[in-house]
Structures are given as C-alpha cells and as structure tokens.
Amino acid sequence: MKGQCVCAATQFEVELQNHHVHSCHCSICRRQTSGVIMTIDIVPGSLKFSQQAQLAIYDSSTWGERGFCKQCGTNLFWRTKDQSYCNINAFALNEAPADLDFGLEIYIDNKPDFYSFAGQRKTLTEADVVAMFQADPKA
Description:
Elements: E1 2-4, E2 11-13, E3 16-24, H1 27-33, E4 37-42, E5 48-51, E6 55-59, E7 64-69, E8 75-80, E9 86-89, E10 101-106, E11 122-124, H2 126-133
Parallel strand pairs: 3-10, 10-11
Antiparallel strand pairs: 1-2, 2-5, 3-4, 4-9, 6-7, 7-8, 8-9
C-alpha cells in the first residue's frame, strides 16, 4: 500500500500486518495530533520510503521513535528503535482498505474525560504498553 504526508514531500510503501486500527491516548500523541492518533500495524521491515528528503525521526522514548514530515508536520509512524514493531498513521494511506476495524485503545488511563469513542474494544493502560515495548524491563 502507498501513503504520504499532507504535502506529499514524504511518500512511502508499506505492507499492513492486519486491518485493525488502534488509537493512542498518550500525552505525546495527544499533543502531536490535538487528539488521538489512529494507527495500523505493519509487517516489520516493510516501511520503504520513495521520497524521504523531508522525513525526520523523533527519539520519543527509550524504546520508541516517531517519524514525521519536516515540511508539513504530518505524523507518519511510530516504531521500536530496533524496528521489530511499527505502526503507521491510518490516514496517511492513499487508499485505506474498506474492511478496517477499530479494535484497540492504548494508554486508556491517560485519556481525558471529555471525549470517548462509541462501542466496545480492547483497552491497554500505560503500564500494559510499557511492559510490552520497553527494551529492558529493569530500566
């Protein structure tokens, strides 16, 4: 699948791991997007950039980093530093699959009270996510 930032200065191809959309309520995602980000998991190593002169990587934690376009600011992906896991902005895809489903909310304990999504889905707390992705559990 192909995708890009808002201004098209950063373009990529990717293979989706599944069609499950998840949202993140962490403070970084909320600040970065003025809300939540909706993402889709991709096959590890499948993120390939056809245009990347404006691509920037932000070192956002001890185990994760975020990619965005320096020109327009579009948030494109979050991945582990070893690149064993990566998800992309679901709305950066040029044509999203018709069968996407919203199945997971992460950092649910960081979600402000003034909004919520309808329906039921799996949720993970900050501690759940940290336990899954932290490179060194003793750190």
